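Translate sequence into structure tokens.
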Amino acid sequence: MITTLKTFVRVILTPVHLKRTPLIAFVVGSWLNLFNHGDALLLGVMNAHLAAKLALNYLTPFVVSNAGLVAHQVH
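Result follows.
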């Protein structure tokens, strides 16, 4: 478990990964937000519930892209 956690942190903090994974998260997260919540955003609706959903749409591809990198490193 500790080795996996160390590998996870090492892979995430690799400079080349820190350039790519946030870019992936931004592009995919922006598309998800537009596709799933574009109507609310165009109407100017904003509340805590929507803000949490918007944040998760950026966090999810960031986590998934890093998990893919870690899986590639571990095997």
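Note: The radius of gyration is 15 Å.
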